[in-house]
Structure formats: C-alpha cells, structure tokens
Design goal:
Blueprint (H helix, E strand, L loop, with lengths): L5 E9 L5 E10 L4 E5 L6 H8 L7 E6 L2 E2 L4 H6 L1 E4 L11 H11 L6 H10 L15 H13 L5 E5 L7 H16 L3 E5 L3 H7 L2 E6 L2 E7 H8 L2 E7 L15 E4 L4 E6 L8 H10 L4 E8 L2 H12 L2
Parallel strand pairs: 3-8, 3-9, 6-7, 7-8
Antiparallel strand pairs: 1-2, 1-4, 4-5, 9-10, 11-13, 11-14, 12-13
Length: 310
C-alpha cells in the first residue's frame, strides 16, 4: 500500500478564547486523488486547512506532507502545497505576471517562464499578464489567486470554497483545470458548499461538523452505505393524515397530501414495498403512479450533520 501524500493525526485546535475549533482529526489523503471536505459554516474546514498549510498552529497532533513533518520542517512541507484561499489577498498594484513570479520565488524556485505562461494560459489570464490586479474583474482576480497557488508547482492544491460567488464560466473553467491537474498527478483537496460539485468531482468525501470529522469514505461507497431511496406514490385522492394501519412503514405526505412518500433502505433484504402496496389495496387507497429516487450526496450530508450535532 502506498504511503499517503498527506497524513493528519490527532490534530486539534483550541483558541485562547476557549473555542474548540477541531477535535482530534485523523485524515489520510492519497496522491493524485480529489478529496472534498464538506461542512456547514463554522464546522472547522478552514481551520484544518490553515493548520495543514502552516498558517495556524495546532494545539495537538502531527501532520506529514509529502514525507515532511509540517511542524518540524515547515518550509519543506509548505513547498508541497498550493493554497487558494476564500478571500482575495494579493498586491492590487502588481501585474498578474509579476505576482505569479514573486509567489514562485517565495518558495525558492528558480524562475521558469514556460511554467508561468502555461498556468496563465490555462486560466485564460495570459492576455491580462501585464495588467495590474486592481484593473481586473472579480472573476479574473479569483483566477489570479489560483495562478499564484500553482506558480511553484505544488504537489497538493487546496481550494477553499473556490467557486463561492463566481460566475458560471469561471466555475466551469476551474473544474476543467482541476481535471487537468489531477491528470498530471496533482492531489486536489477542496471545500465547498456546492455539494453537487463534490458529488460530480470527488473520489472521496469527508464530512466535518462542530470540529469533528464525522465520516470519510469513497463517494460511491458513502452513498451506497448511507443513501436511502424514496418511493413516491401519486394518490388518486389527497390525504389529510396517514392512516394508523400504515404505521409499520416510514411514510410522509407531500405535495399537499397528493403524494405518499416511503423512505426505505435499498440495501435491505426486504424493502417493504410489496407489503405496503398490498396494504394500500386492502385499505382501498388508490394510486395512479409510482416513482423512485435515490438520496443525493446533499441528503446524506444533511443527515450526517444532524446526527453529529446530537
């Protein structure tokens, strides 16, 4: 088994105010994977990323990045990482190209014009390379942040809420870039509120809430284990209440009583659907249509966060 490119062990963070931002997080990230970290605001996503990137000091725990101890060898560990933060943080009076060159130099890399040019072209920034950042649109400024993060050819790229508040075109370009980077062997770790993007992009998913990592699993395995299916039964006549004789099934009324919804475990040996339909017939409850659907990653995420908060 190959060694993970990033290993987090027992990392916690308690601020001077007494706030426990993280609770003993363990996490391994494999080389070349796309990992999505999902969680509500204040869950600890940005704190965890900031600790890994050396911006925040952990209260406990160890972090290994590309074989280097992030606490004992911070410069070597940090060179492995590119970070695209949520907030725009760069010199507005610098040009796009000089900003990227400066960022590359900060990590001790010799200037490499062909790499900087490739990054700028990939992000549709090459025509703006001589422009000052203050002259760019909001979307273009976000592209500059990504270019800066990629300037020193990192092995791991962190994208902290990368598409929050950006236009559709930039979002599409960004995900194309993510795919290209992964093809080159770059490991991508992203946090996002756009759960459908994580569902589409990620190989594995972690859910964090209240500073605790609730679950980490392959996306498909997570959905298989935790995903439920729903059977919507379109009734001939609307119902105001669910008859007591249907108490053996997990039912709810939707669509102003016109739809009877049954939630069931698709992996169970017995789904309960045949017996439910027989019971409806016994009770003379007529229906005109049946439709099944499976849980999305968003449904699973909401359920996990609810359970984690208990």
């Amino acid at each position: 088994m190959t060694e993970p490119i990033l290993s987090v062990r027992g990392v916690s963070k308690t601020y001077a105010s007494g706030v426990h931002a993280l609770h003993a997080v363990d996490l391994d990230i494999n080389k070349g994977e796309i990992f999505a970290l999902l969680g509500p605001n204040g869950a600890g996503k940005t704190t965890l990323i900031s600790i890994i990137c050396g911006i925040v000091t952990p209260s406990t725990g160890t972090i290994t990045v590309g074989g280097f101890d992030a606490i004992g060898q911070p410069k070597r560990a940090r060179r492995q990482i590119g970070l695209v933060p949520q907030e725009l943080a760069t010199d507005m009076f610098e040009t796009v190209e000089s900003t990227c060159r400066f960022s590359r130099g900060l990590f001790g890399h010799p200037q490499k014009s062909d790499h900087i040019e490739e990054v700028l072209r990939d992000l549709s920034l090459y025509d703006k390379r001589k422009s000052k950042i203050m002259e760019l649109s909001g979307g273009m400024k976000r592209r500059v942040l990504i270019a800066k993060a990629l300037a020193h050819e990192p092995h791991i790229l962190f994208l902290d809420e990368p598409t929050a508040g950006v236009d559709v075109e930039l979002r599409r370009d960004m995900w194309k870039l993510v795919h290209r980077l992964r093809e080159k062997g770059t490991t991508i770790i992203l946090t996002t509120h756009y759960i459908e993007e994580a569902e589409e992009m990620a190989d594995r998913v972690g859910v964090i809430s209240g500073g605790k990592l609730l679950v980490v699993d392959e996306k498909t395995a997570l959905m298989k284990k935790l995903g439920k299916r729903e059977l919507d039964i379109a009734l001939n006549e609307p119902m105001s209440t669910i008859p007591g004789d249907l108490g053996d099934w997990e039912l709810s009324l939707e669509n102003e009583g016109k739809t009877l919804r049954y939630v069931f475990d698709a992996q169970a040996e017995r789904t309960g659907i045949p017996s439910l339909l027989r019971k409806l017939a016994d009770l003379n409850i007529g229906f005109k249509d049946l439709e099944t659907s499976k849980s999305s990653l968003e449904d699973i995420f909401v359920d996990l966060v609810k359970e984690g908060g208990k």
